[in-house]
Design goal:
With 255 residues, the chain is α+β, with helices and mostly antiparallel strands. It has ten helices and eight strands.
Length: 255
């Protein structure tokens, strides 16, 4: 027997567009039980209407959270759309639990109602949020890999990025970037000395995503250089002392 709160939770997941199979797997409740509750219990209140589906589409209220989530999505995020099964997934390295929490919090701030779950996969944690409306918030969603199609921000997205540039950069760095310590050697008075210095990298295969990243860096006064990597990816390097200090002030290492 299941209490009423358990039943309501399962039905709320179904109301979000989740399939009976996925709800059964997440909750441990049989498909038969959930089906019977759909018939016997009164329907639950529907989720609030999507602000992007209205006749006059709006934009997310928490624009800083959206700018960060947009950066995560353009880096290591994607949307899977199937009948009655739509979800946004952000892949995070398992050794950075703070990143996992930040991704989940951003999802909840942008679209509060959908359920969110974590899926362990090797050394990664996939943060998943189920809602058929995620494609409304990320119109860049389309079949195929992001680096094989054009990625252009909608005017309302560009407006949010322009107002929250550091959050956007932070999302991109947290997804496909890193802060490392480089080192080099110099001969001083006949003695070889080792010098260490911090550096930021952002790596991506999409020319459009790279351009979005560097355009915002230019607007923020952050100096960068580009260099190709194997596999068709490009590294954007930020190594100038003043620029690294600026990045440290607003971004910092993953955690």
């Amino acid at each position: 027997m299941y209490d009423i709160s358990t039943r309501k939770r399962a039905l709320a997941l179904v109301a979000q567009g989740r399939s009976l199979n996925s709800v059964s797997k997440e909750t441990g409740i049989s498909r038969h039980a959930i089906s019977s509750w759909l018939i016997r219990l009164e329907p639950l209140p529907s989720t609030p209407p999507c602000i992007r589906c209205q006749d006059a589409p709006g934009i997310p209220k928490d624009r800083a959270a959206y700018a960060y989530l947009l950066g995560l999505y353009l880096g290591d995020g994607y949307i899977i759309s199937k009948p009655r099964h739509h979800y946004l997934m952000i892949s995070c390295t398992a050794s950075w639990p703070g990143l996992v929490d930040a991704a989940e919090q951003a999802m909840r701030s942008v679209l509060p109602m959908p359920s969110i779950s974590h899926r362990q996969r090797g050394g990664c944690v996939d943060v998943q949020s189920f809602s058929k409306h995620w494609p409304c918030f990320f119109p860049q969603h389309a079949p195929g890999k992001k680096h094989e199609r054009r990625i252009v921000l909608e005017p309302w997205q560009q407006q949010i990025v322009d107002a929250n540039p550091w959050e956007f950069i932070r999302g991109l760095i947290h997804s496909d970037g890193c802060r490392i310590t480089n080192w080099t050697t110099r001969v001083v008075a006949g003695v070889t000395k080792r010098y260490e210095y911090p550096r930021y990298f952002f790596t991506n295969k999409s020319e459009d995503v790279l351009r979005l990243f560097t355009d915002v860096l230019d607007a923020l006064g952050v100096q960068w250089t580009a260099c190709p990597r194997s596999g068709g990816a490009f590294n954007i390097s930020i190594a100038r002392k003043a620029s690294v200090a600026l990045m440290d002030q607003y971004i910092g290492p993953k955690y």
